[in-house]
Amino acid sequence: MKKGHFSDEQIVAVLRDAEATTAVAAARKHGVSEQSIYRWRNKYYAGMEVSDVRELKRVKDENMRLKKLLAERDLEVEVMKEIQAKKW
Hints:
The chain is mostly helical. It has helices spanning 8-20, 23-30, 34-44, 50-85. Helix 1 packs across helix 2 (23-30).
């Protein structure tokens, strides 16, 4: 997936501007599409601060890492059960 061109601080600033005016005006001012503003609004929740956005990203990354670890562990357990089930 292509990485965005805007930092967390810039996204929060655009969302704040969109709250103060309209999404259309903010989109024109910052050079993004209206759809990007609506997507960011859904993803980052309009009232978030920059630190909140960073914390959300950190938690999502950690959650992804833990899910991957759990999947690997489940796979190892399944392989061990298969090995144990075979008669030698």
